[in-house]
């Protein structure tokens, strides 16, 4: 069945359980890349992996419209279901729509209280109870420690996974497996740190490297590949 195949073959499943087989239900994760390299695509694939397992995911999009965010899901889903039967694709689409909620914020008005208020509205009315948040568009480099501490506290209180994206610029890029310096003073807040790094010119590859993973799922230094055309993680 298509859904089971998508779950079983998703390379990002390595972040689900630790070496003892215990599922990681709480995490603060961060995906770092230069602009346009694929950080949103990674967040969407993380979200899809959770949704297809029946888990509810809130996608928080900062500075982008709901339509643009939905387009990311449509494009990724089109690629991962290429060649599948139409009725199976429709079943997968239904699963995603049922388990996804998109919330948008302007760049200037995102905060824990405002996010928590909107989440509580959903939870208290039994509309939606997420086990995972993906937060795309927050300027992590410019964010003060208080905001990140607030989000860490929210993650702990809700007992969920929260994944963030962050932009690094060429002049900030770390060397090898090192995190760009602009993020190093905030690294302790995150359990898992991933970096997207283009390979040398002409190779046509992007590597997704695990810089840090305190959950015990992945050894630091492990790298997977991202197809630069489809933005899919494939190994």
Describe the structure.
The protein is an alpha/beta fold and 235 residues long. It has one domain (2-6, 23-167, 187-226): P-loop containing nucleotide triphosphate hydrolases (Rossmann fold, 3-Layer(aba) Sandwich). Helices cover 34% and strands 21% of the residues. It contains seven helices and eight strands, in the order αβαβααβαβαβαβββ. The protein has helices at residues 2-8, 39-51, 66-80, 86-99, 112-124, 145-158, 181-184, and strands spanning 27-33, 57-62, 100-105, 132-136, 161-167, 192-198, 206-213, 223-226. InterPro entries: P-loop_NTPase.
Cα(first) to Cα(last) distance is 21 Å
Extract low-pLDDT stretches. none
User: Would you identify the CATH H-level superfamily?
Assistant: P-loop containing nucleotide triphosphate hydrolases
Shape: globular
Helix content: 25-40%
CATH architecture: 3-Layer(aba) Sandwich
The CATH top-level class label: Alpha Beta
Strand order of the largest sheet: 3-2-4-5-1-6-7-8
User: Largest sheet, if any?
Assistant: 8 strands, mixed
Brief rundown of the structure:
InterPro entries: P-loop_NTPase. The chain has about 240 residues and is of the alpha/beta class. The chain is about 35% helix and about 20% strand.
């Amino acid at each position: 069945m298509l859904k089971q195949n998508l779950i079983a073959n998703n390379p990002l499943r390595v972040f689900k359980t630790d070496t003892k087989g215990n599922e990681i239900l709480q995490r603060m994760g961060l995906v770092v890349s230069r602009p346009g390299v694929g950080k949103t695509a990674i967040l969407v694939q993380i979200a899809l992996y959770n949704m297809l397992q029946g888990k509810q995911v809130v996608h928080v999009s900062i500075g982008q419209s709901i339509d643009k965010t939905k387009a990311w899901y449509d494009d990724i889903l089109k690629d991962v279901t290429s060649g599948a039967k139409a009725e199976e694709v429709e079943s997968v689409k239904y699963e995603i729509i049922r388990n996804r909620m998109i919330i948008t914020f302007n760049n200037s008005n995102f905060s824990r209280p405002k996010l928590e208020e909107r989440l509580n509205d959903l939870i208290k009315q039994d509309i939606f109870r997420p086990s995972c948040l993906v937060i795309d568009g927050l300027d992590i480099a410019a964010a003060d420690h208080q905001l990140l501490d607030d989000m860490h506290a929210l993650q702990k209180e809700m007992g969920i996974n929260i994944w963030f994206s962050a932009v690094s610029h060429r002049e900030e890029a770390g060397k090898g497996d090192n995190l760009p310096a602009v993020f190093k003073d905030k690294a302790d807040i995150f359990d898992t740190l991933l970096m997207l790094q283009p390979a040398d010119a002409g190779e046509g590859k992007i590597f997704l490297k695990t810089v840090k993973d305190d959950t015990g799922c992945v050894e630091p230094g492990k790298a997977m590949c991202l197809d630069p055309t489809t933005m899919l993680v494939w190994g």
